Structures are given as C-alpha cells and as structure tokens.
Amino acid sequence: MTDIVIVNGARTAMGGFQGSLTSLTAPELGAATIKEAIVRAGLQPNDVQEVIMGCVLPAGLKQGPARQAMRKAGLPDSTGAVTINKLCGSGMKAVMQAADAIKAGSAEVIVAGGMESMTNAPYLLPKARSGYRMGHGEVKDHMFFDGLEDAETGRLMGSFAQDMANSKGYTRQQMDDFAIRSLQRAQKAITEVSSRKGDVVIDQDEQPFNANIDKIPSLRPAFAKDGTITAANASSISDGASALSIFMVVHVPSAILLVLQVHASS
C-alpha cells in the first residue's frame, strides 16, 4: 500500500483581537502546534524532513517565520522550513504543498499548517526610507494593507465574499445556520503555549464564546445594505495556529494505520 496520510495534528485556541494571545508572536504560536502535532503522531523531532507554515502578515516577525517556529518547536537545524502566503488559504495551501512534495519523493514526513497574530501586525511607514520632506505623512495598517484589502482596488475581502454569496444565491438563513454550527464546534484541541513569561494555557476559543447566538439573525449586514454577510457569519480577526503531521506510508498494513490514528488519506 502506498498512500499519503494525515496522522494527527494540533491547534491553539483562537484568541480574539488584542485578546489572550496578544503576548505571543505567530512563530511562537506555530511552534506550539508543530511540537504537539509531532508528539500526537508518535514522531521524534528528527523524523520530520520539512515544516511548511502559512503566514499572511510576516512584517516585523524577523527572518523566516516558519524556520523560527520549527526551531522553537525543538526540531534540528537540518530540517527544512518554508513560509508561504496565499492569504486566507495559506494554511490549506501549506498542507497541499506538503502532499505534493511527498508525492514527488522529496520527503516522507512533513509538518504543515498555518500561524497568525493579527493583533501584532505592525503599522507601516511607506516613505520613511527616503524621508518625509514636507507635509503630512501616512501610516498603513499591515493587517489591512497586506491582508484584508485587495491590492488593486482597496476593497475589503468581505465585500468580495458578499459578491460570491450573491452569485451563488446563498441566503442569510443558510449563512447564519452555518455560522452557528461552526461556533458550536469550535471548542476542541487546545494545547499549551510557552512564552517568555512562562507557560500560557488558554482552554477555550475566545471569539465563539463571545458570540450571542440568539442575536445572530438580527445583526446588520457588514458589506452591503441588503447583504447577507455580518460580523457573526464572517471570519473574525483572530490570533492562533494549527499544524498537521503528514506521512508517506508504503506497504503498511491497515492495522498499523489504525494505531497511527490516520485522519485523512489521499
């Protein structure tokens, strides 16, 4: 049997904007999930050939955010590490690239996922290098400028989501029902995060528990007067990370795969 399988994974709790995870950088959050994903998969750090982590807001994180996370997780320096940016799909694309690399024979074990601290996204001074000679300057929010706004038009990502919802004919009721189900499910797989101030244990996601489900149907549209997307059924501004252990399995009996707790296979 030849297969590519996801053998366990981990995530931090999702912290709200300027919430409980504010003191932690994206690489610190990523390191916690990489380390735990390896433990849960029954691996040793030197079993992993590469780490691939998505990160949309790398400004101010220093060089190589994924490599920082990999080293903080205790993996040897010989382990490859790469940071990728595909906006909201960055973590998913990291897993896809891991599967492609394994399929191509470049590696047998990869840890892949995503990490972000939207809270700690810095402000930017676009003209500071050449100097502000006269008049008013402008400060850009890295979170909006490089993350939430379209590069060509400046439109917010949520407005494009509203366009897509309209084109697909999704109703407000459908979207609210999905949001409520999602909120009710987002309460599992918490792991400990180490920081300079000691271990930080966040035992639940912040945003889902801040939501009032009864009020969701009455919220105003966020991006269009008669729109269907609201603050409740749209994605929130959050901090957190997740990681998966991905294997190439060759000629392994089904019984052993059951012991490995395979969660998905190609």
Automatic annotation (TrEMBL):
Keywords: Acyltransferase, Transferase
Annotated protein name in UniProt: Thiolase N-terminal domain-containing protein
UniProt keyword annotation of Endoplasmic reticulum present: no
Domain of life: Eukaryota
Protein family per UniProt: Belongs to the thiolase-like superfamily. Thiolase family.
Domain Thiolase N-terminal: 4-245
Example GO molecular function: acyltransferase activity, transferring groups other than amino-acyl groups
